[in-house]
Design a protein that fits this description.
6 helices, globular, five-stranded parallel sheet, alpha/beta, Rossmann fold, 5 strands
């Protein structure tokens, strides 16, 4: 089974970024910023769906809110880091909870405290994408 976004990802060769964020407005901003950084994006609004998608795809990047319905971002981060298939997946924690972020920050590639600007996320994502493409070619 292949979803249309996975097929698009294969055809365009754009890296896939999963945006796991329950706030619709925030998810839209993240999605637009990552598309500007040349990522194919998919928004997931709850922890259960996130775990299901992570079991069937290998995203280049995950932007992860820590407070989600069903499963916490902390649980999802633990799942990503314990799955050998996802060892190269970059994880950006996006949260307003500085204390919680600090307690698990060593498992993330980057922690961004909300509010996060469009430009900030776009520029960071471009940097990750740049490093990824240069590792693949050389």
């Amino acid at each position: 089974f292949r979803s249309s976004s996975m097929e698009n990802n294969t055809l365009t060769n754009a890296p896939l970024a999963l945006i796991i964020e329950d706030d619709k407005k925030q998810a839209t901003i993240f999605s637009q910023a990552l598309r500007m950084a040349d990522y194919e994006t998919e928004v997931i609004r709850d922890g259960q769906t996130a775990l299901e998608r992570l079991a069937e795809t290998i995203p280049a990047m995950v932007v992860l809110d820590l407070h989600l319905p069903h499963y916490s971002g902390k649980d999802i981060l633990r799942t990503i880091r314990s799955d050998a298939r996802l060892e190269k997946t970059r994880v950006i924690l996006a949260t307003a909870d500085a204390l919680l972020a600090k307690s698990i920050s060593e498992d993330a590639d980057l922690v961004l405290l909300k509010p996060i600007s469009f430009n900030q996320l776009r520029d960071l994502a471009k940097r990750f994408n740049f490093h990824r493409s240069h590792q693949a070619t050389g």
